[in-house]
Write a structure and sequence with these properties.
SIS domain-containing protein; 22 helices; alpha/beta; about 15% strand; 3 domains; SIS_dom_sf
């Protein structure tokens, strides 16, 4: 199996050039929109070093906490995964571990799931894209499929990742400028106790922060190809007892990865090593991300030299039958999809965020059953649904309402039950709803525009911003925001609402904190600041999505007791916090800490419009009311 290793190394120059030039606009947009949640990068085999690189760049370039791990070790705690951004890297996106992990992590409903593959049509992309907050990215490397070891795919993915994190300008334009292998080959041939280094079977690799991804790949390649036994240690962790290995096994060869940022500690360490211990210093004048790439190039050369010495091609080993069987083991059984477990996990995460004590298993069973029975027993005469993130998924914002969602809404309206749609947006929502719903049903639909500042029937053609005078409080707010000198933030001022948006943002909470701080500092406390998933709206104190109840044609227009409320942002400062505060409320996404309201009772991994369709599928209608027929699962 595989391809000649030297042939693959000869393709690296072209692969590197391609990766420096390929269009990564979509990937860069995805990375610009990241929130503040911690990031967990996942990789198997050779891709683990790319996961290491991603975690390193996330911390260095974004200032966010990040870690990397293998699929199995990362899958242990769904409570942790639920509050984390997941980034999965895989050259071909088809190995059983990344696929199994992807399916299971989606069931834990993390903040987001992103995948990166080095070819088109990967199964991993399909799995990730099935998640409402998932984004699968594919780049078809001209080098094609790797041999047994990760080579061209590794250089391609690492280069693309570096560029997406803004590190492309730190890299040289040509691959050969990263590392000159001539001196390395000479060092590998040097003899110690009459044995050349290249024949050493015990290696200890010391590294620093900049060269860690290359060190991870070094260990992976040597063990995967059976060339030598490798231990990894950073320069200081080596000092905590690991030095005893050298004292008792002096035939071990020490390899030092050295770049300017760790030169001082490498020099000091090398001076203290016994003269009897053979060592090789591999040094680069490059720093940061460029040093990572330089040492990665060195790893390729060292593996090649070891393979030549042993008469084996690292790219085409003889893989034993038991190894193939091990590779194809399925150790990721399908995650539990029962509603009960998923619903409880969501509330657990929400309560943990605000520091509330954990409940016992029995207590969770009780509060879940209480809510399910309570909402199942309610008889509804109308329904109010949030728009963005509920009726229309965020990734469909510019394409419209999905066919299944429209079908569900029409089914409810055909039963004669009024529908309210609450949104922070304006006429674009009216146009989209009109395209999705038959005109014969428009009279049953009421829309609360701009978070309830303007409420109109869907059939109305009234200009939403026509002759409305600007609220004095919002005029003052607009001035405060303007004086804040925030050029990166798009500010839209309307008579009834001021909207703040940060391009490509996936979370509005940082923007909400900024706006709240500016207004508090200026003493403007007579307005409300609410956050959607991607923007912040500032409205008058009287503005509320609940204003829609007064204009709906239902029998209980002034009361919400017979209204089913569905939204996606019930946790403060979400713009559905007030809407989903009653007993007849459900969320299609995040939940708040309140055990009495706003549960998400959709199956694990089902969110957004898919969860809305699920809820509407549980509706049982009669002549005068409808109810939710929720089972015990």
């Amino acid at each position: 199996m595989g391809r000649p290793y030297k042939l693959e190394l000869n393709q690296l120059e072209a692969t590197y050039k391609w990766a420096l030039e390929v269009d990564i606009a979509e990937f860069s947009k995805e990375m610009r929109g990241v929130g503040e949640s911690p990031l967990l990068a996942i990789g198997s085999g050779g891709s683990l070093s790319t996961a290491c690189l991603i975690a390193s760049l996330e911390q260095q370039r974004r200032g966010n906490f990040a870690a990397f791990d293998s699929p199995l070790l990362a899958s242990g705690n769904p409570l942790v995964l639920a509050d984390t951004r997941i980034f999965i890297v895989s050259a071909r996106g088809r190995n059983p571990d990344v696929l199994g992990f992807a399916r299971n992590v989606i069931a834990a409903e993390p903040t987001s799931v992103t995948s990166l593959c080095c070819m088109k049509g990967c199964p991993l992309t399909d799995v990730v894209d099935s998640f409402n907050r998932g984004k699968g990215l594919e780049f078809a490397s001209p080098a094609g499929k790797d041999g047994y070891l990760a080579t061209n795919s590794l250089v391609a993915m690492n280069t693309i990742v570096a560029r997406a994190y803004g590190g492309g300008s730190d890299l040289p334009p040509r691959y050969r400028e990263l590392f000159d292998p001539s001196g390395l080959r000479q060092s590998l041939a040097e003899r110690h106790q009459d044995i050349p280094l290249v024949q050493s079977d015990e290696l200890l690799l010391l590294f620093g922060p900049d060269t860690r991804p290359a060190a991870v790949d070094f260990e992976s390649k040597f063990h995967e190809s059976g060339l030598a036994n490798v231990q990894l240690a950073d320069y200081r962790n080596f000092a905590h007892g690991r030095h005893l290995w050298l004292a008792q096994r002096p035939n071990t060869t020490v390899i030092l990865f050295v770049c300017p940022n760790d030169k001082a500690i490498a020099d000091a360490t090398l001076k203290l090593l016994p003269k009897s211990v053979h060592n090789i210093r591999i040094e680069t004048p490059l720093s940061g991300i460029a040093a990572t790439f330089a040492m990665q190039a060195a790893v390729f050369e060292i593996v090649s030299a070891y393979g030549e010495d042993r008469g084996r091609d690292p790219g085409r080993p003889a893989v034993p039958p038991f190894g193939r069987k091990l590779y194809h083991l399925n150790v990721f059984p399908q995650a539990a999809k029962d509603v009960r477990s998923a619903s409880v996990l969501r509330k657990q995460c929400a309560r943990r965020k605000v520091g509330l004590p954990e409940l016992s298993v029995e207590q969770w069973e009780g509060v879940y059953d209480d809510f399910r029975k309570r909402i199942s027993g309610l008889r509804f005469t109308q329904c109010v649904v949030d728009y963005d993130g509920t009726i229309c998924d965020h990734r469909d914002r510019f394409t419209g309402i999905g066919a299944n969602t429209a079908k569900s809404l029409i089914s409810l309206l055909d039963g004669g039950f009024p529908l309210g749609v609450a949104t922070g947006r304006g006429k674009s929502v009216r146009e989209t709803l009109r395209r999705a719903l038959p005109k014969r049903l428009w009279h049953l639909v009421t829309v609360a525009f701009y978070n309830g500042a303007v409420v109109l029937p869907l059939s109305s053609n009234q200009d939403l911003n026509g002759d409305t005078e600007s609220a004095p409080a919002l005029v003052e707010v607009a001035q405060v925001i303007k004086e804040g000198n925030l050029p990166a933030i798009k500010v839209t001022v309307r008579p009834v609402q001021v909207t703040l948006e940060l391009e490509d943002a996936t979370s509005a909470e940082p923007l909400w904190r900024l706006a709240s701080a500016l207004l508090s500092k200026a003493g403007r406390t007579n307005v409300r600041v609410v956050a959607s998933s991607r923007s912040v709206d500032i409205v008058t104190a009287e503005t509320s999505k609940l204003n829609i109840l007064k204009s709906m044609p239902g029998a209980t227009r002034s009361s919400g007791t017979e209204t089913l409320f569905i939204g996606d942002r019930p946790a403060w400062p979400g713009n559905d916090f007030e809407l989903l505060a009653g007993p007849g409320s459900l969320s299609v996404d995040e939940v708040g800490f309140d055990l009495e309201t706003g549960w998400n009772l959709a199956p694990a991994g089902v969110s957004g419009s898919a969860a809305l369709v699920y809820y509407f599928g549980q509706i049982k209608k009669s002549t005068k009311h409808f109810r939710l027929a929720l089972g015990r699962s």
